[in-house]
Structure formats: C-alpha cells, structure tokens
C-alpha cells in the first residue's frame, strides 16, 4: 500500500497565529515579501521533517525515502506532482527537480540516479552554451524502462551514444569534450559504486543494527577509514545535507514493485491540492504596529515552541501568579479587585499562556523523538533545531513578536 502522509494528519482543523511588529515603522514591500518567504520556508521544512519521521515510524524503509537535489520553484504549479509512474510519460514531471538521493543506499535509485545525473548535466552544459535545444526526455523514459532488465552500465553507454548523435551537428568542439567528460565521470562513479557495494552494505548493516547508539557519535566503537567516510558522506549523509541546505526540498518514497514514487507534503508543492497544512496568509496590515495573521496546520505549533518554549512559558506563568497575588493583596475589597485593570490584565495574560500550553500539548508533534534509529533521529533533530534557530533570528531581525492571545484552533469551514 502506498503511504499517504495526510492519513496521519488532522485536515479539519487549523491553527491561527498572529505576528505583530514591535517597531511601529512601516515595512517596505520587499521586507514584507522577505518575511513571508522565509517564514513559509521554515514552516514547510518543519512539515517535511515531521512527515519524514512519520514515514519512518510507519515502517517505511529509509532506503526508499529520497530527496531531489533541487528545490521546487515558487512560480510553478506542479499539478502532476503526487504519484509519478517511472515507466511512462510522467517522468518529465520530475526532471526539473534534479537527481534523486536516497536516505540510505538503494541500489535501484542509485542506478536511476546515474541516468538522471547524465541527462541533467548534459542539458545544463547545453543551456550554459546557449544551445537552444536539449536532450529529449524520451531517452530517459527508454533508459528507465531498460534498466528493469539490463545492467545500468549498458544503459549509460546507450545514453552516451544517443547524446553523441544528438550533438553531432554542433561545431563547438569544447562543448563535445564537456559532454564526453560527463560520461567519463559517470562511468567512473558507476565503476567505483560497484567496487564499494560490500563496504556500503557493511555500513548499512552497522547503522541499522545499532539503534541505541549512533556509530558516528561513538568513534571508539567504530573507527571509519578514509574510504568509509567518503562512502558514508555519499550514501548516508548526503540526503540530510541536501535537506538542510535547500529552502524548498522535495521528498518522496520509491516503490520498487510498482515502479512509482510518491511525493510527500504535496499540498505545499502542488497548488491544485492545497489543504489546511499549507501556510495561508489571512490578514496583513501596515497599521501601527504592522501585523500578519496566518492559518496553518498543527505543525505551526513547533514555531511557537521555538519562539517561546514551554520552559519559558512556565517561568512567565510563575511570575504572573506572583504578580497577581501581590496585586490582590493591594486591593482591600472584592469590588476593588474586580475593578483593578492591572489585575484583570495579569489574569488575562495567565489565561492566554495556559491556553497556549493546552494547544501546544495537543498539537506539538513528537514524531522525530519516536524514530528508532539513533542516527536518523539525531539528523532530523539537528535540522529541526537549525530551523527553529533560523526562525528566532528572523523574528529578532524583523522585530516581529508572536501574539499569544491570537493563537487558537480554527475549524476549516469557519475560516475561509
């Protein structure tokens, strides 16, 4: 059965959050656009890493989880990105997203990637040389179908032959040499991969078996050689390096038997399939002070937790309780207590923080901490922390505050 990440999400209820600027000075159009772009990037990355964790916790093999080497573009609709069949004309829908990098080494995906890499690099050479034609995607479809029953090395040679025919009428000898160099390097990588399969398997077995202690964090347990470190960086760490680096990564799951890929968090990428998990700017005002109001899915609570952690809220609540008690002692009668604006303000603030606690307790995800493999867990937690720190820096730089009293659950049907 193909994994559907939205089966594990509440699609009926969103969470409203509001950011108000401390500085009353109006923002320029560029500053507004930059804030929205960065905030939506961080929210999306919270979504994608939590979804990866859900997939791992639902027994999806990490060898079948992959990431493309390029971000999706903001001005594309990507209406076809959902379940892509790698056996037919749907393949061109993914070619602009670059190469496919699996979380743990997957022989089939690695072989597919040799073909993708050749295709993408050659078309990049043609583009840079201002040659207004590209290698036809029909070659890739043919290769993808052939590697089901033929060695990928043979298909690399076949693709090289097709490309040489394709560029044979070009006069630029330097360009032809660059194309030749692409295939030389890919054939070398393919040969080295074949020579390294046993060592790659031993690294994989070690990582899977040591679920309680990450072999990378305990160097005394396992001393990696220079070659093993290179293999590790290529086949075990590259996925997380790309996930951390790209602003809008596209992650999917590969199904060998069906020869299809399933794109995760599609509502953020495929504009025709947006839902409550997509970030939606509901209100914006230049008034003094400027504010923005968003509606999003439950993982937006991760942002509120990084901005004001549960520990910080606990300290604030304790301080408020002390201030409330002090204020009550100042009022001699019950009537004076009821009329005290300061007391009312303090009690309201305490109620708001308690409400935020309740929202966060029921919505802050715990998926990453439930991942069994310690290495995978630590990588996801590191990226999660990095996103949170970037979010804090964004708010400090732009002087925006998360307004606690405006965080609330909203049913989708009531907030259109």
Describe the fold and architecture.
The protein is an alpha+beta fold and 416 residues long. 54% of the residues lie in helices and 11% in strands. The strands form two sheets. Strands 1, 7, 8, 9 and 10 form a five-stranded antiparallel beta sheet that branches. Helix 3 (107-128) packs antiparallel against helix 4 (137-146) and helix 3 packs antiparallel against helix 6 (173-209). It starts with 12 loop residues before the first strand and ends in a 5-residue tail after the last strand. Mean pLDDT is 82; it is low at 210-221.
Break the fold down into its secondary structure elements and pairings.
Layout: E1 13-21, H1 29-57, E2 65-68, E3 83-85, H2 92-95, E4 100-102, H3 107-128, H4 137-146, H5 152-166, H6 173-209, H7 226-245, E5 251-255, E6 260-263, H8 266-269, E7 280-285, E8 291-296, H9 301-307, H10 310-330, H11 334-339, H12 341-363, H13 374-398, E9 400-402, E10 408-411
Antiparallel strand pairs: 1-8, 1-9, 1-10, 2-4, 2-5, 3-6, 5-6, 7-8
Compose a concise summary of this entry.
This protein is 54% helix and 11% strand.
SSE class: alpha+beta
The string of secondary-structure elements, in order, is EHEEHEHHHHHEEHEEHHHHHEE
Strand content: 5-15%
**Total DSSP E strands:** 10
Mean pLDDT across all amino acids: 82
Characterize the main sheet: 5 strands, antiparallel
Please count the helical segments.
Answer: 13
Contiguous uncertain segments of 5+ residues: 210-221
